[in-house]
Amino acid sequence: MSEIRDSFGGVIRIRRRRGLRNLRLAVAHDGQVTVTAPRLAPLMLIRRFLVDQEGWIIDAQTRFRAAGHMPRLSDEAAREQFLLHRDAALKVVRHSLDIFLLKNNWPYTRITIRNQRTRWGSCSARGALSFNYRLVFLPPHLAEYIVAHELCHLREHNHSPRFWELLEEVLPGAAIRRQELREYSLLESGQEEQ
């Protein structure tokens, strides 16, 4: 798969397929444009096709945005955003940890802040706590919930009934916060700043 830039600076993916006769166009819910082309189609033909379809592409992207979907950041922009907010996320995590560890002396081995696509946080079997930098964009009480959740995994490395009871002891009202967190999309958190 190759990529080209569109007239707005966005990345368009080009997939080549054997046996395909016509160019095909798709716009994903995050605004990503993909052209599927015959294996030997010249790049000039693909560019002309994209110019001809520009109105349709913009309409599709606009409909997805109106439905609440956010465009995906380029790898470079995603890296920049991560670096910009990593220290603030670490500060939020350390603040919550300090509060919880005053009452519960549960040793952990290290804390890392990452740019993860599928998790708000994790706890390894060796006691390493990892958090998604995007928690800095959440309301403070939900970021606190994520920290408490991972901290409880130091004692219970599963989601058994004992885990949920422990979490409720450590953070009363955790079940309500858990429900509220489900309203936040992990990948869309923080993208509104771009």
Explain what the structure shows:
Helices cover 43% and strands 18% of the residues. The chain has 194 residues and is an alpha/beta fold. It folds into two domains: 65 residues, no CATH class; 119 residues, Metalloproteases ("zincins"), catalytic domain (Zincin-like), CATH 3.30.2010. The chain has a four-stranded mixed sheet. The protein has a three-stranded mixed sheet with strand order 5-7-6, covered by helices on one side. The model has no long low-confidence stretch (mean pLDDT 86).
What descriptive keywords fit this protein?
194 residues; alpha/beta; Zincin-like; four-stranded mixed beta sheet; three-stranded mixed beta sheet; 43% helix
Question: How would you summarize this macromolecular structure in one to three sentences?
Answer:
With 194 residues, this protein is an alpha/beta fold. It has helices at residues 43-52, 54-66, 75-103, 140-152, 161-170, 174-181, and strands at 2-5, 11-17, 24-27, 33-38, 110-114, 121-123, 128-132. It has a four-stranded mixed β-sheet with strand order 1-2-4-3. A three-stranded mixed β-sheet has the order 5-7-6, with helices on one face.
Write the layout of secondary structure elements.
Elements: E1 2-5, E2 11-17, E3 24-27, E4 33-38, H1 43-52, H2 54-66, H3 75-103, E5 110-114, E6 121-123, E7 128-132, H4 140-152, H5 161-170, H6 174-181
Parallel strand pairs: 2-4, 5-7
Antiparallel strand pairs: 1-2, 3-4, 6-7
Helix pairs in contact: 3-4
Proportion in helices: 40-55%
User: How many DSSP helices?
Assistant: 6
Q: How many strand units?
A: 7
Based on Cα principal axes, name the global outline. elongated
Low-confidence sequence ranges: none
User: What's the mean pLDDT score?
Assistant: 86
Q: What share of the residues does DSSP label as strand, in percent?
A: 15-25%
CATH class type of the largest domain? Alpha Beta
Radius of gyration: 22 Å
Order of strands in the sheet with most strands: 1-2-4-3
Q: Tell me the series of helices and strands, N- to C-terminal.
A: EEEEHHHEEEHHH
**Which structural class best describes the helix and strand composition?**
alpha/beta
What is the CATH architecture descriptor of the largest domain?
2-Layer Sandwich
Distance between termini?
Answer: 27 Å
